């Protein structure tokens, strides 16, 4: 038996959603992510800030939210299109920087989802399905809806 075997490690897996350390009413997306200020993030994203923009250290906002462990801020960034694939530079950094297990699980869950459709792709999909509905009975459309969750 080694010394490592004798050490008991207690891990607290029940980490609640983080509360912002401070509010950043005039901060940019990086400051809001570091602070966990979800209201400021929501405002910035609604005004059209690029969720995958880089700062002077070549980091993205999702990296800072993961690094500090702000689950709600990370979820908001991911829902707005932040890149989290482990096969990309940004996604890989976020996975390694994730402070706790819940943030890691959140990243994995969003990585498993298909990327969101661009407006043109969404319009083409809707047009295709509408054409299929004209040429085939309703049962075909129901089949497509249940298989692909349109």
From TrEMBL:
Entry-linked PROSITE patterns: ANK_REPEAT
Coiled-coil residues: none
Keyword Repeat in annotation: yes
Organism in which the protein naturally occurs: Vigna mungo
Gene3D superfamilies (alphabetical): Ankyrin repeat-containing domain
SUPFAM superfamilies: Ankyrin repeat
Keyword match Signal: no
Protein name: Uncharacterized protein
ANK repeats: 32-56
Membrane topology: Peripheral membrane protein
GO CC, alphabetical: cytoplasm; plasma membrane; ubiquitin ligase complex
Pfam family membership, one: Ank_4
Entry keyword set: ANK repeat, Repeat
